[in-house]
Design a protein that fits this description.
Amino acid/polyamine transporter I; globular
Length: 356
């Protein structure tokens, strides 16, 4: 991976972060209501601070390998256990990617198509770029992210006439409530999936602009996610936006322009399909980077992971209501796996090295 540039991380971060926060925004809007965008601003500041803190420690200690950091902090045995826990977290995110993709397509387009077929249609083609390596993955990611940017701009402009920004008012009419704090935590957890990128950092060719490009990638993700959250609230209102499975798709269905653009939903569907597909590939490849020796020696591990994801995604995708309840739990689990565990590890890593 000697051709990986820190600028590539801008695209990787955008693809990973935008998917969750945009597609099933109703998960956190249900708690935050009309003040969800305020919670997102607070969550964005919190996560950006955490990311800067982690990058600062990496740079200060001149150590960018996740495996090396875990082993130095916890020792070989305990370090391997925590690396396994991180890999399991990545696996859960991969299942989330497949599940959301399948539920979205089945709920909105292919109602009579069996779930197993949709999952197979998703995970089997993903094996090809995984086996081809990082060049194919990064090229697909860059093209997908450019398309996501363009579709966000087009749908944002075309749907502007249907938005009622008075739905956002009054701001914090009930003050800072328990639900608003939980909403903020959920968004922080969903942002946490951006740390899937950590195994890639050690392979970046030059680290000189790493921190800058990392911040740019996160900032773009924050801007698009915040715009999407405000857009959902201004289109449907807080109550309706919090009770729709995929508000993004319904928002684009209303688009009509000049008598020749009527199918605005196409932009959202293509964005969802391509975005989650690339996020799944990036997540599986992160696991492969954590266990690089195993995956380089034997490609069968990609097939084994595909089978595991297929089975688990099939089990959790049987019912929309149950799946969204699991997504609600996932946002809190992400806080543990993507926020608390790395924070503790990197803090101990900083203190341990200073003590020595």
């Amino acid at each position: 991976m000697n051709t990986l540039s820190s600028r590539h991380l801008i695209f990787l971060l955008s693809c990973i972060g935008i998917s969750s926060l945009n597609t099933y925004s109703s998960v956190y809007i249900r708690l935050g209501g009309r003040d969800s965008w305020v919670a997102m601003i607070a969550a964005s500041i919190i996560f950006l601070s955490i990311a800067i803190y982690i990058l600062h420690i990496m740079k200060k200690k001149d150590c960018y390998s996740i495996r090396e950091i875990f082993h130095k902090v916890y020792g070989n045995t305990l370090g391997n256990i925590f690396i396994l826990l991180l890999a399991i977290m990545f696996l859960i995110t991969a299942i989330e990617s497949v599940g959301v993709e399948v539920i979205t397509l089945k709920s909105n387009i292919f109602d009579e198509t069996p779930i197993w077929y949709l999952i197979a249609f998703f995970v089997i083609p993903a094996i090809y770029p995984l086996l081809k390596g990082y060049v194919s993955i990064f090229l697909a990611t860059i093209l997908t992210v450019v398309f996501i940017y363009l579709s966000e701009i087009i749908t944002g402009v075309l749907s502007l006439q249907y938005k009622h920004f008075d739905y956002l008012l009054p701001v914090l009419s009930q003050g800072i409530t328990k639900n608003l704090l939980l909403c903020t935590l959920q968004i922080v957890g969903l942002y946490g999936a951006l740390l899937i990128i950590l195994p890639y950092i050690s392979h970046v060719r030059t680290k000189k602009t790493l921190k800058r490009d990392f911040i740019i990638g996160i900032s773009i993700t924050i801007a698009i996610s915040l715009f999407s959250c405000i857009s959902m609230l201004a289109t449907f209102g807080p109550y309706r936006a919090g009770n729709i499975f995929f508000p993004k798709l319904l928002e684009t269905q209303r688009i009509s322009f000049g008598g020749f653009i009527e199918f605005g939903e196409l932009f959202a569907i293509l964005q969802v399909v391509s975005g989650w597909f690339i996020k799944y590939i990036l997540t599986i490849y992160s696991i492969a980077l954590l266990y690089k020796n195993f995956f380089e020696r034997n490609k069968i591990f990609y097939y084994l992971l595909t089978i595991i994801v297929f089975i688990l995604a099939y089990l959790v995708s049987q019912n929309n209501v149950t799946f969204f309840r699991l997504l609600n739990y996932y946002s809190y689990i992400s806080i543990l796996g993507y926020i608390i565990l790395p924070l503790i590890t990197f803090t101990l890593f900083l203190l341990k090295r200073e003590k020595n």
